[in-house]
Amino acid sequence: MKTDEAPKAVRKSPTFKLTASPPDSLRPYLEEVQTAIARRAYELFEAGGRRHGHDREHWFRAETELLAPVHSHLTESGDALNLRLTIDGFKKTEIKIGVESRRVVLVGKRQVSSSAKKNGIPYPELILSVIDLPLDISPKKTVIQFRTGMLTFELPRSKKTSTSAGTHAA
What percent of the chain has pLDDT over 70? Predict the structure, then answer.
């Protein structure tokens, strides 16, 4: 039986412009993430019978348990770098972003209920990603947009980089 119903419209989530925080203002958030990882690594050390020599293993396991994965894609177009970060499950109010001339820093903490689990494993509640950039950019001219699960950055080259790149080509 055929119907003349119109296809349902795909509903897109809204896009929000975000502003980067001054790099120094991220320090408390970075310290909170580092403390959480250290605390969990110590718990793993104690659970393993307090045997020495496994500190890196415990640290990396703690990171894996606590930090949500961030997938990044960096491209260059004209006078800008374009960076896309996938950050599933985080709201715009749960993240802080720092943009420096050669680095983008993303840190965040989401509110997750203690019963929220995937395959019996609690969802990671923290996010930390530091992306080193291949050239100098203008942090104040950076455009950041957030759409559910995705951050996009337009990172204009600094005048210094554009000028020096043109000089080398001659």
Answer: 81
